[in-house]
Every structure is written in C-alpha cells, then in structure tokens.
Amino acid sequence: MKLKRRFKVHKEGYAILFSLLLLLVVINLLIYVQSPAKIMLVINLLISVAAFAFFLYFFRNPSRIADVDDDSLVIAPADGRVVVIEPVEEYEYFGGKKMMQVSIFMSVFSVHANWVPINGKVKYVTHHNGRHMAAYLPKSSHENERSTVVIESNTPGKHEILLRQIAGALARRIVTYAAVNHPCHVNEHLGFIKFGSRVDLFFPEGTEIFVTMGEQTRGNETIIARLPD
Predict the structure, then answer these.
(1) Is 24 in the same domain as 123?
(2) pTM for the structure as a whole
(3) Structural domain of residue 52, as residue ranges?
(4) 42 and 151 fall within a common domain
(5) Each residue of 78-100: pLDDT tens digit?
(6) I need a surface site. Which of 64, 139, 166, 227 has the fewest CB within 10 A?
(7) What pLDDT does 38 receive?
(8) 90 shares a domain with 43
C-alpha cells in the first residue's frame, strides 16, 4: 500500500471556521475599545488563538491515498480506537442475520473525515435522528443520531457490508455523501461527523478481522478485514 499525506482543512469546516474567526475578531475589538486594562486584551487574544487553533486542528483533512489491488480488503473508514469486535445480529438492513461487528471510537482529537472502506456500489443509505449519549457506549449504536450505509463489494461473492456513522455526546451533525446505486471507491470521502463520534462496521460471517481491541486505526490507511472468498 502506497500512501501520500498532505494537510488541508475539510470543506465541512469552512463555514464554522469563518464564523468563529469573525466572532473572535468582534470580541477582541470590543475588549480593545472598552477595556482600559490591556492585559485583558492580551489574555483574550491568547484564548482566541488557542480556540481557533483547536477548531482548525479538528477540521484537518489529511490527504491519504491508498493503493489497494484487492477488492476483498476493507480499509478503516475512520481514525480512532477499536472498541468492539464481536459477532452480532444486525436488524436494520439484514433482518437479524449474524454478522461480525467492528466499531471505531473517534475522540475530539481524531480526524473526523470518514472514507469509503471498500470498492463497490452503494445499496442503502438512511439517516436516523436520536440521542447524543457518549459514542463509546454500546447502545449508542441504536439510540444516537446515526446514518447507515450499505455497500455491495466488487468481490465475486458480492458481499454486502454495513457502515454506521454515529454521533457522540458533542456531535450534532452527521454528513453522508453516499448515494444509493452509485459506485464508491477507496480514497473517496464517505462523510464527516462533527466532534466526538463512532463508526460501526458489520461484515458477513467468515470475514477475517485484522485489528484487535484497543488498537488505534487510521482512516484510509489501516487494513481492518478481508471479506470471505
């Protein structure tokens, strides 16, 4: 796998960063005009710079180009930590079929862009409104705001995998770019989740899992599974 890295700001952050910058400029101008103590201006400037730097860092969008020639390999769709690896029954799309679940928890310090994990065709996309409990909790997969995408792989078996973007305690918006009946490819962005969140993946039985509990993943870089032959 050949990789290239280049830092840039994700398009989902443009409006927020511009609004934040404008707000900070106004606040600092008001303090400059109204406060006789210049130390207050210095303190507020330092806080403003730190706040803007954090949001700029949060909306970073590193360029990662994966050169994969095996359609059965599944690449991590997100940065984060593996918090679930277990067999489950998936009901939303597969009607209770036994699947293997792998979940990646994304902290506020993770890259929050999500990548397409495998080459294939989008079969299903839906968004559910819900709660905003901590994303690492198991029931957040069913009760939190979430978007579900099912991709049919290009493998001879045409295996379907389900990916679920889950909002966390701080997240209030999930962006999903996938569209039903459209092809999708590794290296494309699947969407973006704002602030702490989680991504669940559901694989057919027989999938070989390469990651372990607690392992750190890198989106569009870490190979997490191989679909059955």
Answers:
(1) no
(2) 0.82
(3) 11-58
(4) no
(5) 999 999 999 999 999 999 999 99
(6) 139
(7) 80
(8) no
Q: In total, how many domains does the chain have?
A: 2
**Same domain as 25, residue 132:** no
Question: Nearest 5°: CA angle at 160, between 120 and 210?
Answer: 90
Tokens representing 92 are 């939303």
CA distance 173 to 166: 10
Q: Which two tokens stand for residue 201?
A: 């993946």
Considering the candidates 48, 140, 141, 197, report the single residue annotated as catalytic.
197
Neighbouring CB atoms inside 10 A of 84's CB total 17
Residue 104 domain-assigned (yes or no): yes
Residue 63 dihedral angles phi and psi, to the nearest 5°: -85, 115
208 and 150 fall within a common domain: yes
**Pairwise CA distance, residues 54 & 207, whole Å:** 38
Residues 136, 105 contacting (CB under 8 angstroms): yes
N residues, the chain: 229
Please return the burial class of 128, using the count of CB atoms within 10 Å of its CB with bins 0-12, 13-18 and 19+. Answer: middle
Q: What is the pLDDT of residues 87-139, one digit of tens each?
A: 999 999 999 999 999 999 988 888 889 999 999 999 999 998 866 555 555 55
**Whole-Å CA distances, 11 to 38, 141, 147:** 36, 26, 19
Classify residue 91: in a domain, yes or no. yes
